[in-house]
Amino acid sequence: MTTFTELLSYEDALASYDPVMGLEVHVELGTRTKMFCGCSTELGGEPNSQTCPTCLGLPGSLPVVNAIGVESAIKIGLALNCEIAEWCRFARKNYFYPDMPKNFQTSQYDEPIAFNGYLDVQLEDGEIFRVEIERAHMEEDTGKSLHVGGATGRIHGASHSLLDYNRAGIPLIEIVTKPIEGAGERAPEVAKAYVAELRELIKALGVSEARMDKGQMRCDVNLSLRPHGTKEFGTRSETKNVNSLRSVERAARFEIQRHAAVLSSGGSIVQETRHFHEEDGSTTAGRIKDNAEDYRYFPEPDLVPVAPAREWVEELRTGLPEMPRVRRNRLREEWGVSEHDMQSILNAGAVDSIVATIEEGADSAAARKWWMGELARNANEQGVVVDELPITPAQVARVAALVAAGDLNDKLARQVIEGVLAGEGTPDEVVEKRGLKVVSDEGALGAAVDEAIAGNAAIADKIRGGKIAAVGALVGAVMKTTRGQADAARVKELILERLGVSEG
Amino acid sequence: MVDIIKLTAAETAEKIASGELTAVEVTEAHLARIDATDEKVHAFLHVDREGALAQARAVDAKRAAGEKLGPLAGVPLALKDIFTTVGVPTTVGSKILEGWIPPYDATLTRKLKEADVVILGKTNMDEFAMGSSTENSAYGPTGNPWDLTRIPGGSGGGSAAALAAFQAPLAIGTDTGGSIRQPAAVTGTVGVKPTYGGVSRYGMVAFSSSLDQGGPCARTVLDAALLHEVIAGHDPLDSTSIDAPVPPVVEAARNGSVAGMRVGVVKQFAGEGYQAGVVQRFNESVELLKELGAEIVELDCPSFDLAMAAYYLIAPSECSSNLARFDAMRYGLRVGDDGTRSAEDVTALTREAGFGDEVKRRVILGTYALSSGYYDAYYGSAQKVRTLISQDFEKSFEQVDVIVSPTTPTTAFAIGERTDDPLAMYLADLCTIPTNLAGNSAMSLPCGLAPEDGLPVGLQIIAPAMKDDRLYKVGAAVEAAFVARWGHPLLEEAPSL
Amino acid sequence: MPGITREEVVHLARLARLELSSNELDHFAGQLDDIIGAVARVSEVADQDVPPTSHPLPLTNVMRADEVRPSLTPEQALSGAPAQEQQRFKVPQILGED
Ligand SMILES: [Mg+2]
Ligand SMILES: [Zn+2]
Is 80 exceeded by the pLDDT of residue C2? Predict the structure, then answer.
């Protein structure tokens, strides 16, 4: 249903207009239970098996606040340099939607638990950009609809929908930035860097795994343009549910180009929601947001105010982990990598994976090599962050260990990783199933070496004569007969040994 | 031979405990009374014959096994159809929930079961507890046992009528603006709105969350206290439940006295609209309190004049949101799903078909009061009024121990008389609403019949929050003095059905 | 304070998802106008410097431990469903988006 959209070139767009962004990120907390009831939040349950009167909105049911939900919200607020409300309330946001059991969302309105903060994010060139935080507030997720009867499983054209409320009531923290001004042409980069940094922070706090591929972290990108030199904001579009770091950047870029095309041709932007399309990076029109929209917020009468004691807030502040940017600087020194490389590691979302892999016993160079090489490439192809790939740090460490022990060479190691990603099992299982072990049987290897020497007498003579560089050809021949499963270094050693030469 | 249905709950429990009666006998007697009278009264929406008898048999078995029985074990009760009951339909008097069988018990239901109270069935009520006459029930009105052409009050008219018709010695009501007390007043029974937060709201279908409160209904003050003690107490499933010991209501009911108490009379609870016979019986009650040793103090609570207006903004606002869940998606009625209509249309058609006029009026009114342009003027101001009312109560309770007033300005009016005049209907709760807005406790008990129509008049006693025991102390004293004066309980004068 | 017009009632009914008939609209518009006329009195206190009360209790910080409690079974959860399929609530086509 992608419709043709006129775009202006990015350079032309920026030449005439100044982008202003607002980013709204929803984070699903990793609590054991839902925000207002004791149902499990475990993923993958049977449909409607994690529901109760409260999260189904049955008549008579009532909510009770999850203490860890509040604690997580405060931690996030503190990490974002926010003020923490001395007293705040939940409010009801009233609108009808079948995936929302009560037809109101229990959220916070004019009294968020955290407000007025900022997050410093580092751009590719090392520049720090400060993103101001308007608020972080607590709310709840909706159920999931399955649209049936349409060709694509989408809402349009479906004959009916099937609802599963297992996700209804999962705690969410909504984090809203103040308008981000002054980023200019770097606005898309800032957007991506902000979401990346926020994600690192959420993970560091241990309040959520923040996996964007699983919908645990979702971003809405609000964007408007104004002519250079003007102060007033233009009409904004709200691109909903942009669910990868790369998409955040692409959505911002696309909207800048689309807005610019509309504005420069004398048109005006409609205030509406937009859908982002992963396939081509475009957005299409959603629902018009006229001002008649009225959520009729009022204080939730079924809940009492939350008034976090200052001692508690200070205790949580003291217990905050090292902030990701500080930690990255420390790691950068420990690993001996450049600012730029560290930034690439961050953008790939690989910091924690590398740390975890090192903790699993790999050395830091090997850990970086695998995560930033093979795995980063793979993640990029799939539009996910590396730690969202179906491989664990322990598995990567195991691969590194196999390489270090000479059981695998790099080429084989890549195949092992490929197998793990393809769901073929653990590295050892993949090695076993695919028969990828380096040929370390000295007898078999020796026979292959002898065969190579015998079949390439002229080259063997050259080597005997001192042209050690020619050994590569014999190694190649051995690798060919062993179908790549030999340790190249050992093969070289054996050849030189057989030919009675030693490496100068 | 004892007339089982005329016994009080306390007497019934005693006779079951002593073996003089079995719980099954008691239950059967009440089921028979329901069979004989409910065609006329229509107090019940659903009689759970099997469930009641099973519970009764369990009580008898417990007794036979020598287990200790609770103070209300085996006593039958009529449950307002607003509390969820596993396996038993819960309709809230609405078509939109016709046939709904909840998969869970309200906390109050659970407590009744654990106390071995026998739940006879579910009683009629104004739809979603919105009303003062039970005429807004989607299942037809309930008659007042004193005069079947008159209303039994509302919204808990079914519960009050069941008591007055001797169909059950105990009943449960809910009181958002007077729905326990006003039916008690017009049926000559006793009803108590506990302090807000005193009785769990979990499983009680919400009308107006910040005002709703479940409470006991009975024919005597002591019976109400015994029931109060069973249903009250902290519930971790209700965030607005008070985590403190239940006030000593039973002890208070057993030791009725007003000697040395200061009793307030609020001047705003009088004037135009008060029926002469109601005023007369109220004045006699004040005289009686003096005779019993109370000191009467006149009070001025100017904000009470705005209570009605504030109530009819707050309650509709909250209900417009609380009732949004009735959308034809997960439970209840679904209308117009012909395979072509959208969910949105089906929701709107179902709500149109499933809600009655009063519900629709309040939902629209609440939607209006909460909308952005009007919020401050209406909802915001109403909440300020609420503060002022609480302050008036606070000041008053610095001077007095309890406040008394007529429960209602008039006796039971005729069925149909006010159905198309919402504002006239709303007047029935003039004296009861301030207590809901402030969250404190109040009781209504009979104080005689109005001379002009021979119908019961209710005396309202109001106490501070968590001082519910004072209601029972004063109520028991007044009740004893009146019964002594009349020579019998007031309900003896009700016509036999 | 202004009263309420029939057009406003139309708008409110749509917000509240009530498919009111034309007769009902006429009927309710008149009644609601009367009721609003009566309750508008509360705005007498709009200027008064008193805090609003949204709740009768002075309670704060009522929270529960993050401990899993038993859920309903899917059968119980779906027991009241007007229609179901694949252990899910079956609902008519959803037009809008949230
Ligand atoms: Mg939100
Ligand atoms: Zn739940």
Answer: no
**CA dist., res. A236 & res. A21, Å (int):** 9
In B42-136, alpha helices (H): 49-64, 107-114
Chain A nearest CA to C77, separation (Å) = 7
pLDDT tens-digit readout, B78-94: 999 999 999 999 999 99
Distance (Å, whole) CA B124 – CA B157 = 7
Q: How far is B135 from chain C (nearest CA, A)?
A: 18
Q: What is the mean pLDDT of chain A?
A: 92
Pick from A238, A187, A218, A265: nearest CA to A25: A218
User: Is pLDDT larger for residue A442 or for residue B450?
Assistant: B450
A2 Cα distance to chain centroid: 25
Residue range A327-348: mean pLDDT, rounded: 88
Query: Which residue in C68, C94, C97 is closest to A40 by CB distance?
Result: C68
Contacts of A398 (CB under 8 A, 6+ apart): A360, A426, A427, A428
The reply to whether residue C97 touches residue A161, judged by beta carbons under 8 angstroms, is: no
Size of interface A-C (CB pairs under 8 A): 142
Least confident interval from B118-127, C66-75, C87-96: C87-96
Residue A273 has pLDDT above 80, yes or no: yes
Report helix angle A310-318 to A67-79, nearest 10: 60
Task: Quote the percentage of chain B above a pLDDT of 70.
Answer: 100
How far, in Å, from the CA of B371 to the mean position of ligand 2? 30
Q: Are B212 and B206 in contact (CB under 8 A)?
A: yes
Q: Which residue has the tokens 């007769």?
A: C23
| DSSP code string of B114-161 | HTT-EEEEEE--SGGG--SSSTT-TT----BTTBTTB---SSSHHHHH
Collapsing DSSP to helix, strand or coil, A467 comes out as: coil
Query: How are strands ordered across the β-sheet holding A91-94?
Result: A104-107, A91-94, A298-299
CA within 13 Å, CB half, B301 = 35
Write the DSSP symbol of residue A120: E
Q: Is a pLDDT exceeding 60 seen at residue B343? A: yes
Q: What is the dihedral of CA A433, A439, A444, A447, to 10 degrees?
A: 130
**Interval B117-129 mean pLDDT:** 98
With bands split at pLDDT 50, 70 and 90, how would you rate the model's confidence at A4?
A: low
Question: How far, in Å, CA of A215 to CA of C81, rounded?
Answer: 27
| Shortest alpha-carbon distance between residue B288 and chain A (Å) | 40
Alpha-carbon gap, residue B408 to B396, rounded angstroms: 21
Neighbours of A472 (CB within 10 A): 12
Rounded distance, CA B94 to CA B355, Å? 7
Task: Give contacts of C 25-64 with A, CB under 8 A.
Answer: 54-55, 57, 59-64
Among candidate residues B224, B267, B193, the one with its CA nearest the CA of residue B442: B193
Q: Please tell me the pTM assigned to this model.
A: 0.90
Residue A153 has pLDDT above 70, yes or no: no
By residue count, chain B amounts to 497
Phi, psi of B109 (to 5 degrees): -60, -45
Average pLDDT, stretch A257-267?
95
Label residue B474 exposed, middle or buried (CB < 10 Å: 0-12, 13-18, 19+): buried
Residues 6+ away with beta carbon under 8 Å from B54:
none
- Among B368, B389, B420, B429, the strongest candidate for a mutation testing the C interface, having the largest count of C CBs within 10 A, is B368
The predicted model gives A291-297 an average pLDDT of: 80
Q: Of A480, A459, A481, A455, whose CA–CA distance to A471 is shortest?
A: A459
User: For residue B25, how far is its CA from the centre of ligand 1 (angstroms)?
Assistant: 58
Q: Are B224 and B191 in contact (CB under 8 A)?
A: yes
List the Cα angle B283/B288/B289 in 5-degree steps. 100
Residue in A48, A49, A140, A312 to test binding to C, most C beta-carbons within 10 Å: A48
Average pLDDT, whole number, for chain C? Answer: 92
